[in-house]
């Protein structure tokens, strides 16, 4: 009988050890899971803050692009920095029946442009 009691006692100790190890394992996994969830939540918060910052920067850049695209601003820069002027010459269509007329128009146009270049070179706009 004492042998049976010893075997029973040994089995009881083994069962107790298994249950205790199971509880310890369960608690360890639970703590590990909570730790990982906490890390993920911190990372999520950091990423949300980063997303808000990037969205804010994106809006600033979009407004800057819209300002830079403004045709009045581009025209103003072209005038101030590159001395560009708007072409105010009237547009006209020319019907040419003879090739000699083309040569005549080319020479007149060249003479007119040469006169404008001389004026611009003299510093007169």
Could you characterize what this model shows?
This protein is 82% helix and 0% strand. It has helices at 2-69, 71-82, 99-121. By secondary structure, the protein is mostly helical. It contains 3 helices and no strands. The chain has one domain. The termini are far apart. The model has no long low-confidence stretch (mean pLDDT 83).
Could you write a compact summary of the structure shown?
With 125 residues, the protein is mostly helical. It has helices at 2-69, 71-82, 99-121.
Weakly predicted, low-confidence segments: none
Order of helices and strands: HHH
**Would you tell me the overall average pLDDT?**
83
Give the helix/strand class: mainly alpha
Number of domains: 1
Could you tell me the radius of gyration in angstroms? Answer: 44 Å
Oligomer: single chain
Number of strands: 0
Q: Into which percent range does the helicity of residues fall?
A: over 70%
Task: Tally the helices.
Answer: 3
Shape: rod-shaped
- Beta-strand residue fraction: under 5%
Major sheet details: none
- The CA-CA distance between the termini, in Å, is 124 Å
């Amino acid at each position: 009988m004492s042998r049976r009691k010893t075997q029973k006692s040994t089995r009881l100790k083994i069962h107790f050890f298994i249950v205790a190890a199971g509880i310890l394992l369960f608690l360890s996994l639970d703590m590990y899971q909570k730790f990982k969830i906490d890390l993920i939540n911190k990372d999520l918060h950091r990423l949300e803050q980063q997303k808000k910052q990037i969205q804010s920067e994106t809006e600033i850049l979009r407004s800057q692009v819209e300002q830079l695209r403004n045709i009045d601003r581009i025209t103003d820069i072209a005038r101030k920095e590159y001395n560009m002027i708007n072409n105010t010459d009237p547009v006209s269509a020319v019907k040419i029946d003879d090739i000699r007329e083309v040569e005549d128009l080319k020479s007149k146009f060249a003479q007119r442009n040469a006169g404008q270049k001389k004026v611009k070179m003299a510093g007169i706009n």
